[in-house]
Amino acid sequence: MVAQTTVRVSQYRPNTAMAPHAHGDALISLVVAGDYAERFGARERHFARGHIAFCPPGAVHSQMFGREGAQQIIFEPQAAWLDYLSDCRAGLEDAPCANTALFRYLGDRLLQELRREDEFTAIAREGILLEIVAAFGRREAAVRSESKAPAWLKAAREFIHDHAFSPISVAEIAQAAGRHEIHLAREFRRRFGVSIGAYLRRLRTEEAARLLERPQADITDVALSCGFASHSHLCRVFRAHFGVTPSHYRSRHSH
Asked: Is 212 helix (H, G, I), strand (E, B) or coil?
């Protein structure tokens, strides 16, 4: 029997506010539509579609919803999941948040599954929730590792981000960082957990997913603008990252 995680979909009206409040249990929220501003202690953060956030129990926060309102999937992570995230040094006490195309995709999948009711619904929902928690944990682990990187390695990463959608070589990145290519490649993988090539492919794929959410997006145009050699090149990398083709992603997740 599949353990049932408590999940709800909350809808918030446009231009409304939620007064300061706290929750007795830890929550994870994933925005699937709209946007809002949240005040969390001294911090103010803006959340939009694809944003995932962890709210520790007892943490006081308030929200102001945008002109289109907002829709969120909210669930109480199981104790074992929280223990695992803590063991992986996810920094849950800081109420971390993130926003990538992967969370938009997983949020849409979960929303669709929440609307279904059949003999496979429970296990399908639980599987997607686990994917969300795993992706969130990986994201937080990467952020914490990146924050401890030496200045030259951060410079290399910034160079990659600045030139992600143009042809770039490891030699060019190494020159920007002031390090030898072999040393750069070794330290990049050690610090960020992936090769330079894999990191670059992830950036390009995330951008392609964002562009594909436009209903009239041409896949070949998206591929070339994101630094892929061709339509087929994007399809191979996209399927490896998301598990679906670009055309399938576009048809299911365009808004």
From this structure: helix
Domain boundaries defined on the chain: 7-146, 149-253
> To 5 degrees, how large is the angle CA 3–CA 8–CA 11?
170
Q: Any idea which residue has 């070949």 for tokens?
A: 220
> DSSP secondary-structure letter at 3?
P
Residue 200, C-beta contacts closer than 8 angstroms, at least 6 positions apart: 160, 164, 168, 227
Is the pTM higher than 0.85? The answer reads no
Q: Residue written as tokens 């200045």? A: 151
Structure tokens at 189: 């993988």
Strands 7-12 and 27-40: unpaired
- Tell which residue, 112, 130, 160, 126, has the closest CA to residue 9: 112
- 23 forms bridges with which residues in the sheet? none
Single out the residue of 57, 59, 99, 61 nearest to residue 82, CA to CA. 57
Domain 149-253 fold is Arc Repressor Mutant, subunit A (1.10.10)
Q: Which residues contact 247 (CB under 8 A, 6 or more apart)?
A: 219
Indicate the CATH number for domain 7-146: 2.60.120.280
Per-residue pLDDT of the chain (255 residues; tens, 9 = 90+): 456 788 999 999 999 999 999 999 999 999 999 999 999 888 899 999 999 999 999 999 999 999 999 999 999 999 999 988 887 777 788 888 999 889 998 999 999 999 888 888 889 999 999 999 999 988 887 777 777 889 999 999 999 999 999 999 999 999 999 999 999 999 999 888 889 999 999 999 999 999 998 878 899 999 999 999 999 999 999 999 888 899 988 887 654
